[in-house]
Amino acid sequence: MGALLTVVQSPATHRDHANRVFNDGLVGRLAAMNAASRALRGMGYHVVREELCERSGHGPVIVIAYDRMKSLVPLLDRAALAGSRPHWQNRISQSRFVVDLLGVTVAWTGSAA
């Protein structure tokens, strides 16, 4: 049984593309988002959504659940230690709280009433 085997390599374009899927920027954003998400959960917040925001030019965004019974003081204190100040964006029926935590934008939307 003399079978002839031929070694076939994938084209360079496929190899290069495979190496760019998890580039340094993506790995950095994933690490920052994971660290911030763990910190938020450790403080007792419920993480609703995580977005990498690759194409928009912004960093990762984490949205936490609105809860009137949960104080924002631990989050504000932790962000203040890193030099981040909160921003409030008021709308007609909602207000949105935004703060930077570990290089990730943390957003919280709640009722203004």
Please, could you describe this protein's structure?
- The protein is elongated and about 75 Å long.
- 33% of the residues lie in helices and 26% in strands.
- It has one domain (12-111): Beta Polymerase, domain 2 (2-Layer Sandwich), CATH 3.30.460.
- The longest helix is centred in the N-terminal third of the chain and has 19 residues, at 24-42.
- The chain is an alpha+beta fold.
- The model has no long low-confidence stretch (mean pLDDT 80).
Write the layout of secondary structure elements.
Elements: H1 12-20, H2 24-42, E1 47-51, E2 61-64, H3 73-81, E3 87-90, E4 94-101, E5 104-111
Parallel strand pairs: 2-5
Antiparallel strand pairs: 1-2, 3-4, 4-5
What are the defining features of this structure?
single chain, 113 residues, alpha+beta, Beta Polymerase, domain 2, 5-stranded mixed beta sheet, 5 strands
User: How many distinct helices?
Assistant: 3
Q: What is the CATH architecture term? A: 2-Layer Sandwich
In N-to-C order, the SSE pattern is HHEEHEEE
Strand content: 25-35%
Morphology call: elongated
Total individual domains: 1
Radius of gyration: 21 Å
Sheet/helix structural class? alpha+beta
Q: What's the CATH topology name?
A: Beta Polymerase, domain 2
**How many β strands by DSSP?**
5
In oligomeric terms, what are we looking at? single chain
Major sheet: order of its strands?
1-2-5-4-3
Low-confidence stretches: none
The CA-CA distance between the termini, in Å, is 82 Å
Percent of residues in helices: 25-40%
Q: Report the average pLDDT across residues.
A: 80
